[in-house]
Amino acid sequence: MSSASEMPSNGDAKPDSPVDLSTIPISPAGQDKPQGKSAATGDEQITVFHDPDNFNVKHPLMHKWTLWFTKPPTGKGDNWNELLKEIITFNSVEEFWGVYNNITPTSELALKSDYHLFKEGVRPEWEDIQNKHGGKWSYQFKDKRSVAIDDVWLHVMLAAIGETLEEENDGEVMGVVVNVRKGFFRVGVWTRTIGKSIPGGGDGDVAGGKGRPTERGQEILKNIGRKFKEVLTIPANEVVEFSGHTDSAHAGSTRAKAKFVV
C-alpha cells in the first residue's frame, strides 16, 4: 500500500509513456467523453493541441505538471504500474484547459479510479525520492451525492498549478490527488516533508525542507492545510488531516494517525 491510490508499487519500474487522451479514461457506461465540442453551441473549441506550432497565446505556469490516471483494478494480481497511466505533461494555462476539457469528469469515473496531478518528474508514489520524506493533507467527502466533486477537483488543481496552496519558495507541494471510492471521494495534497528538515539532501533534492527549522516547517505545512481547506469550501468545524507517508505505510494508508489537523 504505497501510492496515491493505495495500490502496491514497484519502485524499480520505469514510468509509462504518455497515453493518448482519446483512450483513457473511459466513463463507466463505456463511452468516451465527446472530444473538442462545446455542449452549449456545438462549435469546436480551439485549443493549443489543434496547432501547437502556431498557437502562440500561452500563459506559462511556474512548473510543468503531469496528469496521471489510475485504472480500477480487475483482480488481486493487478500490477500497480499497469494500472497507473501517465496521461500528459503541460506547462501553460491553455494546455491545462485543453487537457481538462478532453478527459472524463471525476463524477463519471468508475469506482477505484484516481486522478493524480503532480509536478513533472515526481511519480505519485510514496517511494519517489521527492515524496519519501513527505506526507499529505486529505479530506473525505462521505456523502457523495451532496458534493460537486468535479468543481472541487477543478479548484484543487487550479490552486496547485496556480501556486496558491503555498508561499513562494516554500517548495512543499508535490501534487494533488482525487480518489473515487464506493463510500466517498477523497481529495489530497502531497507535500515534500512532514515539517522536519530533510537529512542529507542528495540527488533529486530541491528547494524546501533542507536545513529548515522544524517549527518553521510545521507552520508552513499548517498554512498549506488551511489554504487547502479554503479551496475545499467545507464547514469550519470539519477537520482536514495531515499524515506522513511512512506512518501511512506502516498503519495501512487511511488508518495512520494524523500529525496535524486544521
UniProtKB/TrEMBL annotation:
Keywords: Initiation factor, Protein biosynthesis, RNA-binding, Translation regulation. GO terms for cellular component: eukaryotic translation initiation factor 4F complex. It comes from the Eukaryota. Pfam families: IF4E. Gene3D superfamilies: RNA Cap, Translation Initiation Factor Eif4e. Residues 1-41 are annotated as: Disordered. One of its GO terms (molecular function) is translation initiation factor activity. InterPro entries: TIF_eIF4e-like, TIF_eIF_4E, TIF_eIF_4E_CS. GO terms for biological process: regulation of translation. Belongs to the eukaryotic initiation factor 4E family. Recognizes and binds the 7-methylguanosine-containing mRNA cap during an early step in the initiation of protein synthesis and facilitates ribosome binding by inducing the unwinding of the mRNAs secondary structures. eIF4F is a multi-subunit complex, the composition of which varies with external and internal environmental conditions. It is composed of at least eIF4A, eIF4E and eIF4G. eIF4E is also known to interact with other partners. This is Eukaryotic translation initiation factor 4E.
